[in-house]
Amino acid sequence: MASLFKENGSGYRIMFSDGDGKRKSIRLGKMPKKAAMTAMSHIEAIISCRLAGQSSFPPETSAWIGNLPDDTLTKLAKAGLVSFQRHTLGELWKSYRKQKKGVKKSTLDVYDYTEHRLFAYFDREIYLHKLGYPFCST
Fold first, then answer.
1. Domain range for residue 94?
2. Into how many domains does the chain fold?
3. Is residue 123 one of the residues assigned to a domain?
4. Quick check: helix, strand or coil at residue 88?
5. What number of other Cβ atoms are within 10 A of residue 116's Cβ?
6. CA–CA separation, 54 vs 46, rounded Å?
7. What global pTM score does this model have?
8. Are 43 and 96 contained in the same domain?
9. Sign of the Cα pseudo-torsion (30, 33, 36, 40, in order)
10. DSSP string covering 17-69, please?
């Protein structure tokens, strides 16, 4: 499904075919061959999930995506493999609260208390991937 190529002096490239039969490639840059092989296996897992219509990746692939640097995630996003969005904990909380409309005053008090305690410990601007939650989806 995917192929790994060594480029002269510039590292590795992974070529793959998406669901439409188009050939695409991602340049990985200089890295050990074992790391390039690992990247290729995760990219194959992503492609398999997309072709099977699954909305989530295997846990090890999700963890791998969550630990990638932004430039590599941008490459995967340009190739159409993932959507690259980094969300903060504050954004997640705000989204959660928007969904909880029409609740009792006592429930709102609990939410306010939870918000106070949560952000007393965590920074609102911390990215979710720093907390171990990659939040990258297809």
1. 89-131
2. 2
3. yes
4. strand
5. 9
6. 9
7. 0.63
8. no
9. positive
10. E-TTS-EEEEEEES--HHHHHHHHHHHHHHHHHHHHT-SS--HHHHHHHHTS-
Q: Which amino acid does the sequence have at 47? A: I
Q: What amino acid is encoded at 134 in this protein?
A: P
Cα separation of 63 and 85, whole Å? 15
Which CA distances in Å does 33 have to 21, 29, 36, 67? 27, 11, 5, 19
Residue 84 lies in a domain: no
pLDDT in tens, 18-61: 777 789 999 998 999 999 999 999 999 999 988 888 878 888 99
Residue 97 token pair: 């609260």
Q: Is residue 101 part of a domain?
A: yes
Rounded to whole angstroms, the Cα distance separating 120 from 132 reads: 19
Tokens of 87: 């969300």
Helix (H) or strand (E) holding 25: strand 23-29
